[in-house]
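Quick one, T. Sequence first:
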Amino acid sequence: MVYQVIKAPIEVCPLCAGTGWKTAGTGFKGERRVVRCDCQLKARAESLLTAARVPRRYEHCELANYDTDFPGAHPSLADAHFLASNFAKKCDPRGDKGLLIIGKIGTGKTHLAVGIIKELILNRGISCLFYDYRELLKEIQNSYNATVQTTELDVLRPVFETDVLVLDELGAVKPTEWVWDTVSLIITTNFDDQPAAGVATSLSPARAASRGETLGDRIGERMRSRLHEMCRIITLDGADFRQKYRSASFR
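Structure tokens:
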């Protein structure tokens, strides 16, 4: 018995005929100009999106589906969406400030952050990386374990090589000193952007003892001051949407 192998035809891009380049008019002296074909840009965007490590539960999050118009929506949500969209359009990873997104649990901080990096990747080809702050610190800590075949450099290399880094849930664990100068940042936190207890001299002892922990308490005033230098601040107010709608769309 003879078997015949039938090969499916390979789909070739009609714009570039598989070369990866398409004609873009003529130059000053009449020479033909070429640019990267859309098929190559799409393939790069898909590769960058996979490399961004966005958790599966947030894969649906986009700026386009961030809801700011529902009964009881706080006005800060629409303001935050506008600022996030503007950042995604104009961010220059080579020297622009990052974003510090502040809000209580369930107000949509992570949704906005993921929406921003999707815009940066898909529309502008900018590499991004998502990390839960607790998981990143845990990976760094594990790299010092002799039984783990990885080093701190292995963990941090993609962090420092990406154009834009998302650090989700800053302050969820108290950090050690951190180096942030080599990447643009998008950071989310549940903690109020207030000084540490020992710095907030205007508080009475009773008020200081009864208040909740602040960002200054969790990361220290030196790091909080550095964040203010590096980031624009977006503050979200309102109810916990996940509790209200039992949806994973918000965090």
